[in-house]
Design a protein that fits this description.
alpha/beta, Rossmann fold, 2 domains, 9 helices, 39% helix, globular
Amino acid sequence: MNKRAADAELYDLYDEYCHGAMQRREFLRRAAALGAVAGLAGCGGKPEALLPDYAKCVTVAFTDARIKARYVDYESPGGNGPMRGYLVAPAKLEGKTGAVLVVHENRGLNPYVKDVARRVAVEGFLAFAPDALAPLGGYPGNDDDGKVMQRTLDREKIHADMLGGAEVVQNHQSSNGRLGVTGFCFGGGVSNHLAVEMGASLKAAAPFYGGAPDLARAGEIRARVLVHYAENDPRVNASKADYEAALKGAGVDFETFVYPGTRHGFHNNSTPRYDHAAATLAWQRTIDLFKATLA
């Protein structure tokens, strides 16, 4: 196996680990074997370097003077149980502003997603990031346990929990009632789902590499939709063409972007999959969408 093929297989292995039942020990064993060929894709020769390093992902500290952050509990009829989320507001908010729901990946509200919520607030919006694991005690402090916990929850009930979170932030006293949503991986799929489910109540959706919603319901979407795809992401991209056709056929205002050379998770700056140029561009497009629709 040549180095390029081993690099690709190494990242495919990481994707399998993130989205399947593979245990951490098995991933590290197999990654080490591949790393002997791939050089661990520039990861310092250690398979552990492929795992999230959340110290790297902080771009807006929780003590940043530009924001005010706190946790909010809310009830979730039809969901998995009592919910909690991370609410972040601009510190010097005058009047009301647009609201943005931030939806995490398949492992609960980890530090990366909380940082994303803070980034949204720095841009002037009211951000709310619910934790789907709240009924189980919340994000456990590591992604390995988090993904196992999230897998035990009913997905449709998670959708209800996220819909409840959308209503919490949309109806907040600091919100002007105009709501947007963004999310990553699992959260990208939730963003697409809410675009269908919320109809005219949602003004904008910016999913990152998330699964398509029920395409038969694409005509119910009233939000502007901006979909971010990684180039090398066959699992998610398998639904791309059909989703685009459904959106076009329904007359939805949408754009899709594919970021060359990127892999699933390219926005997540806690792992080596992170692509700075693509993540920066995708995030700026997302913020521009919110500024155009939520003011």
